[in-house]
Each structure stands twice: as structure tokens, then as C-alpha cells.
Amino acid sequence: MTDTLPLPATVDAALDLLSKGDYVADRSLATAIFLALKLGRPLFLEGEAGVGKTEIAKVLSETLGRDLIRLQCYEGLDVASAVYEWNYSRQMIEIRLAEAAGDTDRAALGGDVFSEEFLIKRPLLRALEPHMGGPPVLLIDELDRTDEPFEAFLLELLSDFQVTIPEIGVVKAEEPPIVIVTSNRTREIHDALKRRCFYYWVDYPDADRELEILARKAPGVGEGLARQVVAFVQALRKQDLFKLPGVAETIDWAHALAQLDVVALDPETINATLGTLLKYQDDIAKIRDSEAIGILEQIRSEVAQASRTRAS
Asked: What pLDDT score was predicted for residue 309?
């Protein structure tokens, strides 16, 4: 964890902040981040899996010197796992000790065992507590995996930065955490939640930005191979596939090719490593062999054409 830094004062400062964390962002994303931080609003990031939504929260935590509290969402996630639950074993011990001591004031005992010392704090509640380095970054990751009742529960947290515990009352953050909510859009998130956030769609990067990302995330890959990798992935995203490769897959593929000492793409290498890029067998079967060769030939033709243009 680095020293705590102030929030960026301009959009350019937000761009610099992301760049320091090796995150290659365009100005529109930096603007959304700047406004969310400046106005103290949650930032809702939606987009395909692997385009770098989660990484934004990690980078903000690192570059601002804040704790990162992550709630990984899943089907069936409930308040006990996300916010709080009572330490029932400790409560039972306390009750038995009171009974052994002859304390029969049930009202007082009930108040004692439903106090904060018996509370097990989960990520959302911990994010509302004061932190030494300033308000933490709260990442609510893949919200679309949860069900609608949990989504509705979040409305109080995202609008007022507080949660209500029936036995204790309202727990409100002294300083609001930096909240990043992500969704892969496997289902639609309700407007009530989106209205409480700044919204930004994180799209696949263009070729130039993806090449810059590779230069930062896979610096050991030669420039020529990196250009071929980016061109191949960009071409794949134009195919009718079940799951298009994200930036994370581009980086993984570049690392894999570097480990194999590959200096230029060839059909055999592409066939052998397609599982790094594509995660469904039907997609792999569709691209393997002739389709991969066709994409590779197209890339080589475009590179040759660009070389002739530069020479002339």
C-alpha cells in the first residue's frame, strides 16, 4: 500500500493516476472516474468480461493508497455474507454464563448479546468504518450474478452510504467509501440502482490502445509479435463467437507466446494456444485451422500493405 494521496482535481489528473497504475484509459473513462470521485458517487461499470472493469478498482486502491474491500457477488449472496451476521456461538456462551451467575434480566441480557462486540462484520459493513488511510475503495464485483432482492438491499448503501441493522440501528459512514460496482450484463440491473451511480460502459479497446496495454502488461513481448497478437484478437472480435476474447485474454496469450519463444504467429502455434484466447470449445473449433489461417493471411497482407505505404 502506497501513501494516501488526494483525489484527482482534474480529468487530466485522473488520467495520470490511472497511468501510474499501468491502466491505459481513454479520456471518457477518466472523466467518469473523476466525476464519481469529485461528487462522491458510486461508479457503475458495465461491459463484457475481461475488459478491465475490476482492474479499475484495484488501480484506484493502489494509486490513492486506500484499502481495497472486495465483495465478489454470486447467485444466492445474502446479507449475512455481504453485510453482517451475529456471532451465535459467542452469544450462547454469554447467555449460559449469565444464567450460571444468576442473571435473569432477559431484557438487559438481550441488549447485551445484540451489541457490536457480537457482530461479525462482512465487506459492506467494514467499508463504512473509518480506515487509517482514508475511506477505502469498495468493489462490488459482478453484481449481475446476484438476485434482485440483494440488489434492492444495496439501494440504501449506494444512496446514503449506510446500512440498517434492526437490533442496533443505522450504521453510517463518517466519510463515504469510493464505490465501484461492476456488471458483465448477464442480466439487466434495475434503474433504481443505476440512478444512484455514475454509469460507464467499458468497451473493448481499439488496436492502438490494446497495443499500449500489451506494452505495459507484457513488456517482454517483442513489438512485432505484439502487433500480430493485437491484430489477430481484433479480428477475432469481429467473428460470431459465443464469447469474444477480452483484454485479459490478449495479455494471457501474449505471455503464453513469450514463454514458447514465439517471435511471429504461425498456424500451428495459433491452433496450439487458442485455449488461452477462447474459453468455449465451439468457438475454438470454429476458429481452428482454416479460419485461423485466413485471419493470419489477412493480417500479413495488411502489414505488407502498410509497409509499402510507408515506403512510398
From this structure: 74
Handedness of CA 113, 118, 124, 126 (dihedral sign): positive
Cβ distance 68 to 57 under 8 Å?
yes
The pLDDT assigned to 305 comes to 76
- Across the range 238-251, mean pLDDT stands at 95
- Nearest C-alpha neighbor of 291 from the set 260, 265, 270: 270
d(CA 45, CA 42): 10
Report, in this order, helix, strand and coil percent for the chain, each rounded to 5. Answer: 55, 10, 35
The model's pLDDT over 50-102, given as tens digits with 9 standing for 90+, comes to 999 999 999 999 999 999 999 999 999 999 999 999 988 887 887 787 777 76
- In this prediction, residue 29 carries a pLDDT of 97
Nearest to 246 by CA among 50, 55, 53, 52: 50
Q: Which CATH class is domain 11-75+122-201?
A: alpha beta
Separation of first and last alpha carbons in the chain: 51
Q: What confidence tens digit (pLDDT) does each residue in 278-289 have?
A: 999 999 999 998
Closest listed residue to residue 267, CA positions, set 238, 285, 287, 281: 287
DSSP conformation letters of 141-200: E-GGGS-HHHHHHHHHHHHHSEEEETTTEEEE-SS--EEEEEE--SSPPPHHHHTTSEEE
Instruction: Identify the CA nearest to 51 among candidates 216, 248, 212.
Output: 248
Q: Where are the beta strands (DSSP E) in the chain?
A: 43-46, 68-72, 84-86, 119-121, 137-141, 162-165, 169-172, 178-183, 198-201
pTM for the full predicted model: 0.89
Q: What is the largest CA-CA distance in the chain?
A: 98
Cell numbers linked to 163: 446500512
